[in-house]
Amino acid sequence: MKSHTKAEILKATADIVRVNGFHSTGIEELVTAAGIPKGSFYFYFKSKEDFGLQLIDHYIDGIIAWAERLQNDTSRSPLSKVRAFFDWTFTALESNDFKGGCPIGNLSMEMADVSESFRQKLEGAFAAIKERILALLKEARETGEIPDYLDIAQLCEFVVGGWQGALLQAKVMKSTAPLRAFEQIVFDRLLKGDNTGDSGREVPQGER
Amino acid sequence: MKSHTKAEILKATADIVRVNGFHSTGIEELVTAAGIPKGSFYFYFKSKEDFGLQLIDHYIDGIIAWAERLQNDTSRSPLSKVRAFFDWTFTALESNDFKGGCPIGNLSMEMADVSESFRQKLEGAFAAIKERILALLKEARETGEIPDYLDIAQLCEFVVGGWQGALLQAKVMKSTAPLRAFEQIVFDRLLKGDNTGDSGREVPQGER
After folding, report:
1. Largest separation between any pair of C-alpha atoms in chain B
2. CA angle A170, A136, B205 (to 5 degrees)
3. Residue A31 to residues A10, A19, A46: CA-CA distances in angstroms?
């Protein structure tokens, strides 16, 4: 019962922190959203920082669960799984009117320089995502979906950065343009071997 | 005298907000950093929000000044100017032990969803950067430095996003790896026509 309730508190507060940030969200707001008395908050969390660190675990659990579902999806090629992973986050942002964005990215911008505990937790969260993306990129290399001249580890670093930047731009612009630019340039240009747009993947209209 | 002093206040407080964020930085901290009495702060700025919006102008002025210096540098090719623009920000981040990162990106993550005034100001700031990058990319297309199959407007959107994501990742990881991945994949892979690494630009070691 205890751990169930803690998970419920994290679930109920996740969106407030994602949209408003960690510093701006007060304990009052958190307990109101969770529908619990303040005492319960401190029963489950030692401090607001402790809450924040456990919230990062909550966010990353959801992201990793999606990555693993994709990994086990035998109907898709390895590279299309990578694309589907990013696309899932883009669709979520769009359907939420571009509000919020990536909670891990947001907290990184806000907290990485002001709390070493947060920085380490956030670095670990990104490392967990990169591990899954890298595994899929390696599979894609083996099946010939990624040209030989691209270094897979560097590519992984690059696409995770590009993904985060696209989410940030979309959040500021309230537009899908940065998301589409990321997907089309990475998957329809960079990761094609011949750069002609005729590699078998569909080339979106209006791109040339 | 008045405008000179306002510029000095913005200059003296710019780094605190860049590292600690807008919400976490109190007026007390700002006036202490600027060495002014609290009353002076409210003489120059109507509110903390007004200060924040003018601080974005201060940041963007510095970035645009650098972009324009590059634009007028006749010793570089258009594409190498784009690379130098990003490289300037990467070098600044590295030399600051990866602390701070891009103030416009940080404020975007923190403020875009909580204040429409900030969001509009930040969108305008990125638009000013993109305008300069796009002009250089167009020049590069004309001089044959960018392959024909890449859409220049989309490329601009993509590289600005990728740049921001690389800065975010470097800030969290305290590592140059995301910065190098961005530079090498964009300039030595994506923007080369033949993808062999032999287009005349230097290909960094250990990349293949």
Report:
1. 62
2. 85
3. 10, 17, 14
Cα A115 to Cα A50, A124, B5, B14, distances in angstroms:
12, 14, 32, 20
B 153-192 → A contacts, CB under 8 A: 154-155, 157-158, 160-166, 168-169, 171-174, 177-178, 180-182, 184-185, 189-190
Check: CB of residue B68 under 8 Å from CB of residue B26.
no
How far B35 CA lies from chain A's nearest CA (Å)?
Answer: 23
How many Å apart are CA A172 and CA A168, to the nearest integer?
A: 6
Render pLDDT for B75-129 as a digit per residue (tens, 0 to 9).
999 999 999 999 999 999 999 999 998 999 999 999 999 999 999 999 999 999 9
Q: Which residue of chain B is at minimal alpha-carbon distance from A178?
A: B157
Rounded-to-5 percentages of helix, strand, coil across chain B: 70, 0, 30
**What's the CA dihedral at B179, B181, B183, B184 to 10 degrees?**
150
| CA gap B18, B106 in Å, rounded | 7
Whole-structure pTM value = 0.90
Query: How many helices (H) and strands (E) in chain A?
Result: 9, 0
Q: What pLDDT, in 10s, does the model give residues A152-185? A: 999 999 999 999 999 999 999 999 999 999 999 9
Q: Write the ipTM.
A: 0.90
C-beta separation of B64 from B129 below 8 A: yes
